[in-house]
């Protein structure tokens, strides 16, 4: 797959289908990447994609986005309720609630699911990235 500028699209995971995670997933899909949007269960992940759909529909109604572009973007986002869906992702961005214990558990699960050489990122603003990286077998591949 290639993006609009000819670059190869990547498989990216986003954990957390809320406002922040949905926004990250939308931007990544807009740039031509395949996105796996993961949340605690399939229903929450689908709800997150539904919010992205509603946002894009408004852009189509305002004439700022074509229906074809919206459909293409949405076709690149796959909601999932299990971390196993992150297999094959080169990059996973964690965007869950600012709860240290929750993020520690998520990092452990993401580390098990994604490719061994993949990069794991967090958007935390208050939790030590070093602490989160210590939950993985790839601390040097964890970024904030």
Explain briefly what this protein structure is.
This protein is α/β, with parallel strands linked by helices and 144 residues long. It is 42% helix and 17% strand.
| DSSP E strands, number | 6
Spans where pLDDT lies below 50 across 5 or more residues: 1-7
- Shape, per Cα inertia axes: elongated
- The DSSP helix count reads 5
Portion of residues within helices: 40-55%
The share of residues in extended strands comes to 15-25%
Neighbour order of strands in the largest sheet: 3-2-1-4-5-6
First and last CA, distance: 27 Å
Oligomer: single chain
Protein model, in words:
This protein is α/β, with parallel strands linked by helices. It is 42% helix and 17% strand. The chain has five helices and six strands; from the N terminus they run βαβααββαβαβ. It has helices at residues 19-30, 42-61, 67-75, 100-113, 129-133; strands at 11-15, 34-38, 77-80, 91-94, 119-122, 142-143. Strand 5, helix 5 (129-133) and strand 6 form a beta-alpha-beta unit. Helix 1 packs across helix 2 (42-61).
Give me the secondary-structure topology.
Blueprint: E1 11-15, H1 19-30, E2 34-38, H2 42-61, H3 67-75, E3 77-80, E4 91-94, H4 100-113, E5 119-122, H5 129-133, E6 142-143
Parallel strand pairs: 1-2, 1-4, 2-3, 4-5, 5-6
What are the defining features of this structure?
144 residues, disordered N terminus, 5 helices, 6-stranded parallel sheet, 6 strands, alpha/beta, single chain
